[in-house]
Structures are given as structure tokens and as C-alpha cells.
Write a structure and sequence with these properties.
Structural class: alpha+beta
Number of helices: 2
Low-confidence stretches: 4-23, 110-115
Oligomer: single chain
Length: 149
């Protein structure tokens, strides 16, 4: 029982540390990983960054709620996706990051019909499931800590 609590607590601390280091990263892609998109958490300018540095490959103004991430074309090519904009990429590691202090898109630019790329819903379900699992782990740790008193 005590070993389970230690393992869960260790996992929660490690996950929190990873999240703190990547606070500005909204979505990332590494070679071999499935493609994923998610709704933009805030209206802002997002920078597409490659693994080789912090210089943006491209920037796109995105309204909160529009899809942002990485998708594969029918022939397997990697494409960065942001609110309807597509950017073909060679295979590699990339991330979408919020440009600090950036304004969002102009008023009225939101499209309710923003197309969701293939795999977008599955990616959201996977992220939601992982978030739920993390919350359950925290609740279990709290419950076990309270039971030991």
C-alpha cells in the first residue's frame, strides 16, 4: 500500500515538473509520435518552432478554440496546422508556442466551421483521458494520506 502511494506521488511530481518546463508549448510533435491537434487555449500569435532553436519557422494568429497542432497527409507527410493554415514540414521535432505578449487575431476572424484535421478528436480524447488519470492519481494520494492519520 505504501509503495503504491510512493509511486503515484512520484508520478504526479514528475508530471508537474514536465508541465512547468513546457508552460508556453501548446502542442508538440516528435518523430514517430501520432499526429495531434487541440483547441488553442487563448487568442494569440503562435510560433512554429523547430528542434534546432527558438527562431520561429512561421507565426500564425489564432483565435481561442480553433485547432492547432500537427497532422499527417494521406501520403504520410507531416503538416503543421493552425486555424486552417497548413505548413508542410520535413520529419522532425516541432512545437507550437504562444508568442509572449502577442495580440490575438483581429475581431471577427473566428470561424465556427474551423475544420478539424484527421485524428483531432482522437487526440483530444487521449489528452482528456490522461488529464483525468492524473486527477484520479492526485485524489488517490490525498485519500491515502488522509487514511493514514
Amino acid at each position: 500500500m505504501r509503495r503504491t502511494v510512493t509511486l503515484i506521488a512520484g508520478f504526479a511530481v514528475a508530471a508537474a515538473g514536465c508541465a512547468a518546463r513546457r508552460a508556453s508549448t501548446v502542442e508538440a510533435h516528435v518523430p514517430g509520435a501520432p499526429s495531434a491537434t487541440r483547441p488553442a487555449p487563448t487568442s494569440a500569435t503562435y510560433a512554429l518552432i523547430g528542434a534546432d532553436g527558438d527562431q520561429p519557422i512561421e507565426t500564425v494568429a489564432v483565435t481561442r478554440g480553433r485547432q492547432i497542432g500537427f497532422v499527417r497527409t494521406g501520403d504520410g507527410a507531416l503538416v503543421a496546422y493552425a486555424a486552417g493554415h497548413t505548413i508542410p514540414l520535413p520529419e522532425g521535432s516541432y512545437s507550437w508556442r504562444v508568442v509572449p505578449g502577442s495580440p490575438g487575431p483581429p475581431a471577427g476572424s473566428f470561424s465556427i466551421t474551423d475544420p478539424e484535421p484527421k485524428g483531432g478528436r482522437a487526440a483530444r480524447v487521449a489528452v482528456g483521458t490522461a488529464t483525468l488519470a492524473g486527477k484520479i492519481a492526485v485524489l488517490m494520494v490525498r485519500a491515502m494520506a488522509g487514511a493514514g492519520r
